[in-house]
Amino acid sequence: MKSPAKPRFIVTKRSRTGRARLGILKTPNGIVLTPAYVIVATHAEVRTLKPRDIKATGTQLVIANTYHLWEKSKIKKQNSKSYLEQKLGVQMPTMTDSGGFQVFSLGAAREQGVGKVLKRNQTSKIKGQNYSDVRIIEKGVHFKIDGKKRFISPETSVATQQRLGADIIFAFDECTSPLHPYPYTLASMERTHRWASRCLKVHTNKNQMLYGIVQGGRFKRLRAQSAKTIGTMAFDGFGIGGSFGKDEMRSTLAAVVAHLPEDKPRHLLGIGTVADIFDAIEAGVDTFDCVIPTREARHGRLYTDTGPLDVRKIKFAADRRRLLGSRSTLGALHRLFRSHDEGAGRLATLHNVRWFNLLLERIRAALADGSYRTFKRKFLISFLRP
C-alpha cells in the first residue's frame, strides 16, 4: 500500500507590493491552492449539505471542531479511513481546531456577551477567564460538555486531533477576550506559549501538520512578541487566533505576519467577512475560516457581487436570477424560505459557499496575472455600492 504524501507548503508567487502570495498546500488527502477560504464543518459535516455537495461548491479545505467531536474521536477507523473522512463522506483536506476557542465561548463570550471582534462601545473589563463552566489552570482547562465534566490539556487536545485524523491540527491555546486587560492577556499568552511547547513534544503523526497559534489579544506589542516566540518553534504552520479590536484587523495582522517564517503557511482563525478576506490576503495570510457563508445562508442572507441580500423579502418573490450551485432561482428560494421548507437552507448554503470559493478563485487569478489591485478596486465598488 502506497504511503500518503508528506504534507508541505510551497510559495509559488509573491506580490510585488505587500505580503500577498500564492501557494500550494500539499496534504495526504489532496492539494489546496492558496489563498483559500476554509469552510466550517463543526461536527465533521457542512450543515445542510450532502457529502457530494461539498466538492461541488469548489471547497478545498474544511475545519471541524475538536470540542464537539471529543467523544467521536474514540471511534475506530473503518477501512483505513479516519473519523473525519467517514463522517464527511468524501476524501479531502481537513483541519481541526484545538478546542481553545470553545474555552473562550463557554467562558467570557457566554457570560460577558463578547465575541472575537470587539463591538463598538463595549468597554467593560474582564479580569480573568474562570467562569461557571470553565476553570483554567496551568495543566489545562476544566469544562463541561453535554452536562459532563471534562478536562482538556495540550496533550489531550493533540491526542484527540490525531485520532480524528485531520491533515492540519492546532496547538492548544487560550483565546482571550478583547476586553481582557493587558496583565491578564500577557499571562494568558505566556501560558499559551508553554502549552505550545507541550503540544510539540507529544505530536507524533508526521503526516499531520501541527500549527502553533499566535495570541496577544488587542495588544500589538504582545502580538509581535507572541509571533516571535511561536515563529521560532518547530511548527509546520501558524494560526493567528484570539480577539481583535474593532477596525484593528489590518494593523494587528501586520504586527504578527512580519515575525512569522516566510516558508510556512499562515491561517487566520474564525475571521472571514469580505473586507477581512482582502485585508488578510494582503497581510500574507494563506487560509482563513468563518461560519459566515453557511450560517447566514440558513437565515436567507445570500452573497452576490453587488452585495448581500435577504432572499426572504417579498421583492424577491418573482426574481428569476439563478442561484450558484443549482438550477433554482431567487424567487423559488424565496418561496421555500417562506414555507419553511428544509431544502431552503441547502440551496442557500450551496450558493453562498460557491460564491465565497469563486471569490477566492478570482483573487488567485488576479494575483497570478498581476491585476489584483484593479480587481479589488472594481469588486469592492460593486459589492459595497449603496
Q: Low-confidence stretches at least 5 residues in length (pLDDT < 50)? A: 107-116
CATH topology of the largest domain: TIM Barrel
Helix/strand class: alpha/beta
What's the helix count? 13
CATH class of the largest domain: Alpha Beta
Give the termini distance in whole angstroms. Answer: 58 Å
Helix content: 25-40%
Q: Please identify which CATH superfamily of the largest domain we are dealing with.
A: Queuine tRNA-ribosyltransferase-like
CATH architecture label name of the largest domain: Alpha-Beta Barrel
* Assembly of the depicted chains: single chain
Plain-language structure description:
The model is unreliable at 107-116 (pLDDT under 50). The chain is α/β, with parallel strands linked by helices and 386 residues long. The strands form 4 sheets. The protein has an 8-stranded parallel beta barrel with strand order 4-5-6-10-11-12-13-14, surrounded by 7 helices. Strands 1-2-3 form a 3-stranded antiparallel sheet. It has a 3-stranded antiparallel sheet with strand order 7-8-9. Helix content is 37%, strand content 17%. It folds into 2 domains: 8-99 and 154-290, Queuine tRNA-ribosyltransferase-like (TIM Barrel, Alpha-Beta Barrel), CATH 3.20.20.105; 304-386, no CATH class. The N and C termini lie far apart (58 Å).
Indicate the topology.
Blueprint: E1 8-14, E2 21-27, E3 30-34, E4 36-40, H1 51-56, E5 62-64, H2 83-88, E6 94-96, H3 100-106, H4 108-112, E7 134-136, E8 141-145, E9 148-152, H5 154-164, E10 168-170, H6 182-202, E11 209-214, H7 220-231, E12 237-240, H8 249-257, E13 266-268, H9 274-283, E14 287-290, H10 292-298, E15 301-302, E16 309-310, H11 330-338, H12 343-369, H13 372-383
Parallel strand pairs: 4-5, 4-14, 5-6, 6-10, 10-11, 11-12, 12-13, 13-14
Antiparallel strand pairs: 1-2, 2-3, 7-8, 8-9, 15-16
Helix pairs in contact: 5-6, 6-7, 7-8, 8-9, 10-12, 11-12, 12-13
